[in-house]
What we know:
The chain has 14 helices and 13 strands.
Amino acid sequence: xxxxxxxxxxxxLTATAERVRKSVESVIEGKxxxxxxxxxxxxxxGHLLIEDVPGVGKTMLAKALARSVDSSVRRIQFTPDxxxxxxxxxxxxxxxxxxxxxxxxxxxxxxxxxxxINRASPKTQSALLESMEERQVTIDGRTYELPDPxxxxxxxxxxxxxxxxxxxxxQRDRFMARISMGYPSASAEVQxxxxxxxxxxxxxxxxxxxxxxxxxxxxxxxxxxxxxxxxKYAVDLVQATRTHxxxxxxxxxxxxxxxxxAAKASAALAxxxxxxxxxxxxLAVQVLAHRLLPTAQAQLNRRTAExxxxxxxxxxxxxxxxxxxxxxxxxxxxxPLFGQQPGxxxx
Length: 347
């Protein structure tokens, strides 16, 4: 059972998140929305897939996030010859004690950086399935719990196909969100030359939060209220992907759960103890698009999954205010509201 001591206040959450954000942005210039989504996934107990062309800072973002939190960090460089035991660990026979001893693999860390994840074979990629979903590893019939908090930040290059293995649907579905870094603006690129030209800013990056602080913030996010109308809205968005004519594979129930969890984390980062339909809307593309498979006709028409999700968001009715004065009447007891934005929908 979660106690009051296990949670942090919303003010503590926003203050800690602001420190981590500034720390990461000191390395990643001109990408505030990418940094915010990374924090959202971290606080929502999810895993992040960073997909873009080479040289735009995918690995730099993952390393900056890991170094900003004082936690155990492991990096796995995925290569074609990587074995599943390199990730999960292996049992080794101890000659002196005459028994097998388990040697933990690289997955036993609080933040795991998987670089170029699509360069490993499907056999090796499957070693992540249990750990990403159940936060445990089973070796030789024994189950080992992974540390808390636990997050996998993986990168992949979608352009270079030679020597790569596309992520299977089961693997992609375990990532809460997928983001693309994109090229920086001209001003951000000039600033990057000033900052990165002589030294590596990662060398001077110091932790600004501890792992146990992040664990408390996660407990706070769990307590964020999601009204029934907001939950129904999230379900409507996901169900629309299963019947859309441009998609041959829609989003799973896990996607619905991830969407609501991410919305709760986004609300907490905004200083609110309740989620809005806007939180769901803003995260729909990042949370849903990478799980979807367009039909052959949609691909011929150059329709991307992101465009389809955007159309679904535009076409799905949004819950409106529950009373003329905009009071919050979605079955939640009246209490002080945190960080209400002017013009935001209140349910």
